[in-house]
Every structure is written in C-alpha cells, then in structure tokens.
Amino acid sequence: GYREQLDAALRFLREGDDYLVVSHVQPDGDAISSTVIIGWLLGKLGKRYVLANEDEVPGRLRFLPLTGSIVQLPDTDHARRYARVVSVDCADFRRIGTVSQSFADGVQLLNIDHHPTNDQFGAVNVVRTNAAATAEILYDLIAHAGLALDMQVAEPLYVGLLTDTGGFRYANTSAHVLRIAAELIGHGVSGSAIAERMLEMMTMPQLQLLQRGLSRLQFTAGGRIGWLYIEHSDLAQTGAAGEDLEGLVNYARNVEGVEVGILFKGAADGGIKVSMRSAGKVDVAAIAQRFGGGGHTRAAGCRLECSLTEASARVLAAISEVLPS
Ligand code: 5GP
Ligand code: MN
Ligand code: MN
C-alpha cells in the first residue's frame, strides 16, 4: 500500500548520511520543485545532500529556494560518486540523463514519481500514477514524516502542482490537489504572483519561437492531428532556450477538432524530440512507448534518431492508425 511505500521512502532517507537528488533532463516545474523539496526534507532530517540536474534550472524557476544550489553533473572537476540517490519525476533511469555518470557502482536509488510508464527502477519505489504531480506525493511524504510546512517548502509544492496541472485545469486536478493548494495559500504562498511568473509571463525569445511555430502549424487526418516543428537553428536565431518551447505544443492540441497535437523539435545532435498532447481519446503514452519514450496518457514524449521529415512521417502514421473513426 501507499503508506508502506511512504514508510520505506522515509527509512531510505533516514538510513544514510549523504544523498544526491536528481530529476529528469530539461527539467520542468515539477522536476525542479520536487528536487528542492527533497533537499528541504533532507535538511530537516539533518542529512547532507547535493542537488543536481543535467541541465540548467529554467530562469522562471530560479526564484524558488535552493534552486541556486542545483549543480550540473557530471562535472569534469569532481570525480565524486554517490551511493545513495533520490530520483524525482523520472519515469525511467534514462530520463536522469548524464547525471547518472556520477552514481557509484551498486548505487541505491529511491524512485519517487507519478508517470504511468514508470518502470520501478529504484531499490525503493514510490510510484503513484493517480498523483497529479510528484510534488503531490512529496506533500504526502512530508505529512507522513510529521513535519510542519513552511514557506521554503510551500512555494515549490505549489509550483509543482500548478505546472503539472496546467494551472489547475487538466483532468488530474483532483479535490486533493486543490485542498493542498488551498493549504499552501494559507501558509502565505501568493497564487497570483506564481501564476504570473509561471504561466502568464512570456520571454521575448519565447514569443518569437511561438511566431515561427504558428506559421508552420499544419493539420492532417481530417483536422484531427495538428502539428508543428521548431528547428534547432530557430533556438539560436531567436536566442531561445529549450525551456522556451514549453506550452508550444498546446497551440496544436487546442484547435477545435484536434485529437492529438504534436511538436517536433530538432535537437543539437540532429535527433528529433517529439512532444505529444491528446484531447483524451488517444493514449499518447502508448504511442511514445513505441518509439522508446513515455509519459502520461494525455501528455507524452519520445526521441527519434532521424530527420524531421522521417520523424514526422513515422509519428503521424502511428497516430493515424489509432485515431478513432
Ligand atoms: P514534454 O512533451 O513536455 O517534453 O513531456 C510530456 C510528458 O512526457 C512528460 O510527463 C515527460 O515526463 C514525458 N516524456 C517526454 N519525453 C519523454 C521521453 O523521451 N521519455 C519518457 N519516458 N518520457 C518522456
Ligand atoms: Mn516532469
Ligand atoms: Mn511531474
């Protein structure tokens, strides 16, 4: 049961002296929030810890406590290897990226996540697929540990919930999520200031990417698939970072009649990163898994090692096959 999983997680966090906390590459709001929440929790338990990610913390998340201490690993100057690792918001080991080069042989992993495609890669696993965000599970973990909330942890908890529910709009916005959010606002979190920063505010490069993306938006399968692409050169030309692509796929998905929206992103090494969003009838996690990726039924992703033309042909064909008639 869930209580036993939370017990096992707390035991894991209490047993050691020293931990590495990691999340997925190209971290989103839930990934960064969950990383710093575990940092806060380890601090309360009197443990030493290092917070790490393969990629930089997105600018709009840097206001959160402890994000300044998230390091990028592997760091060529530090040959240190970590024997106890907490992984948050990662569906599988590969999502941790190159940070895993800093793990010791025989590393002990605690895997806390909410993706249905999670493959239980930890020695201890707390995988709750009906949780809206990993941050929701961490709220339960903190309560289970009997620790009182403060602003340091209330803000990242709120950001994790807000971002993974698309601003409390997606189907995963449960009564439990809203009750937690209400409690966090009661602790002094400013819902409006965080929504402004996380959801409303656009950077100029982000707007320029949006202009390019929308100019290429096309529809197929009788208007039931909407798709667009961003080439790697678009990032340099607009001054955008990977994080500026977040939300772009929704413009394809949100068009009336569209069942699946897709964004193809050219990667630096020539591969293609695919983001898929479903209006509800198509399980895009299943499509993503066919290409070695994963995610949630309504939001999933994968990577293809081929040209944009080939990637779009293969993914569009796979989705057309499963579109309801
Ligand atoms: P996004 O399209 O925003 O990158 O990702 C949407 C969802 O799919 C997220 O929950 C993310 O964790 C998952 N996802 C995206 N790319 C991959 C991937 O390459 N592998 C796996 N396993 N999950 C992915
Ligand atoms: Mn995530
Ligand atoms: Mn998440």
TrEMBL record:
SUPFAM superfamilies: DHH phosphoesterases. This is Bifunctional oligoribonuclease/PAP phosphatase NrnA. It holds the Pfam family DHH. Residues 237-321 form the DHHA1 domain. One of its GO terms (molecular function) is nucleic acid binding. It comes from the Bacteria. It comes from Paenibacillus sabuli. Residues 20-160 form the DDH domain.
